[in-house]
Amino acid sequence: MIHCEGLVKIFKSEDIEVVALQGLNLTVEQGEMMAIIGNSGSGKSTLLNILGGLDRPSAGQVQVGEWDLLKIRDDQLVEYKRNTVGFVWQNNARNLLPYLTALENVEMPMLLSGKLDRAYAKQLLEWVGLKDRMHNKLHQLSGGEQQRVAIAISLSNRPKMLLADEPTGSVDTATSDQIMNIFREVNRELGITIVIVTHDLALAGKVDRVVAIRDGLTSTEFVKRNPNLDLAAGDGGFGGGLQEVHEAFVVVDRAGRLQVPKEYLEAVGIGGRASMEFDGEKIVITAPKSLEGDKS
Ligand SMILES: Nc1ncnc2c1ncn2[C@@H]1O[C@H](COP(=O)(O)OP(=O)(O)OP(=O)(O)O)[C@@H](O)[C@H]1O
């Protein structure tokens, strides 16, 4: 469904250039539910905005379904955003119209694209557990309920892919669990591909695969050992809860490049260059041999 290779995004302002993505590789299968994690500034939102057609890539390849997002024309981009992708944000005020009811909010994107389907709008609200509140105005609903309306809206035009940026960022744990269960259900029922950007490792435990981004590059992948197991709560540590249910892999690109965590490099004293040996089974990276020799 999604295929990024060597994806680059550079933000340019008058006197400064920021390389937010520096050759990122990512493949997401149709029907997969996965999460992208990474520290603040690692490029998660930049990636999501490109996948959602809200921002243009600078270079590389990015294909979503039939669309090449590097070459797509502006008029095609409008169609792409309307039909292929649904968005859920942390701050749902962006999606919602407070003076309309929940049902009217869900119907709004349908009206805009000329495909009103009230039965489906009601079904979506039932799916997110708001059957009894669909005629309430938005301001009569709690924050968690509004977020569920936002999910129903994101699905109103039957997108093939749902992108969620910190979807549980401003709700409590119970609501967060409820939202993740809704994602899982629509993923199963509709076969929709779901990509969630999050800091929350407990939430990452509830998806099939987690891809970690560091400095605008995919660094590590965590694949669920037992796809039927849902992690109740992470312990907050990167190597803790996540690694109990997921197996960790370092990502190696086609050119053989991989990212070694900064902590590992510091621990063995590797700076600008390293020595690498292959012993027939293992590839061993150490501090440069010549420097060791210098010491003696
Ligand atoms: N419009 C912009 N103009 C200039 N620089 C930008 C712009 N948007 C993002 N950046 C920079 O690109 C880098 C990646 O930002 P991005 O928002 O994608 O990170 P993130 O991983 O989503 O962080 P967070 O978790 O804090 O949202 C950062 O250094 C950021 O300052």
Characterise the protein shown here:
This protein is an alpha/beta fold and 296 residues long. It folds into two domains: 2-254, P-loop containing nucleotide triphosphate hydrolases (Rossmann fold, 3-Layer(aba) Sandwich); 260-296, no CATH class. The protein is 31% helix and 27% strand. The protein has helices at 44-51, 74-83, 102-112, 118-127, 143-154, 173-190, 201-204, 241-245, 262-267, 289-295, and strands spanning 2-12, 17-28, 33-37, 59-64, 67-68, 85-89, 161-165, 193-198, 209-214, 217-224, 246-250, 275-278, 283-286. Strands 6-7-8-3-9-10-11 form a seven-stranded mixed beta sheet. A four-stranded antiparallel beta sheet has the order 2-1-4-5, with helices on one face. The protein has a two-stranded antiparallel sheet with strand order 12-13. Helix 3 (102-112) crosses helix 4 (118-127) and helix 4 crosses helix 5 (143-154). The model is unreliable at 231-240 (pLDDT under 50). Residues 11, 18, 20, 38, 40-46 line the site of adenosine-5'-triphosphate.
